[in-house]
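Q: I have 198 residues here and want to know how they pack in 3D. Can you give me a structure?
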Amino acid sequence: MGIENIREAVISEARKEAEHIVESTKSHFASLMSKKKKEIASDFDRLYKTRSSAIADEFNRKLIRFKGIAGKQILERRNNLLNNLFEKAKEQILGLSPEKYGLFITGLIEKAAGTSGGLLRIHMEEKDIFMEVLSHINKMRGPDTYIFIDESNPLTEKGGFVFIGKDYEVEQTLGLLLRDLRQEMLPEIAKELFSVQS
């Protein structure tokens, strides 16, 4: 009986120890599983954020590049449109009747010369119109404030003139006037023609 009791006691103790080991192993396994799940979730979140960020960065780079290309194309089209508009304006002014062109030129000469005399550099194909205009302007001036045509130094392009006074020069060529007008009007034209409606 004594050995049987010892045997029962040893088996009982072994069972308790085995149960304790199993419980400890289960607890350790559950803790390890929870830790690994958190690590995997954290790795997944980090990987997701990294890849999402990489995709967003790539999208933004492509969007910026696309906007740059589109902006450049819009700018080129706008400039072509404006160039065409101002070229047509130049053609219309040069196509005015001699009387209307003369009136246009008269205003420019009076503004540029003021009460001073001087010389006008012009394109020689427009000499007749300028001679007519100057004959009217010089009628209202004294001999020391007459304006004459400088035939020795003609302009290479039709449209407008360069006034050479005693102490100053004023360019009133059609090309310069239209460039100045374009620069002055460009913000307003761009706003009207090319603003994006939201």
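Q: Anything worth noting?
A: Helices lie at 2-94, 98-113, 127-139, 174-194. The chain is about 70% helix and 10% strand.
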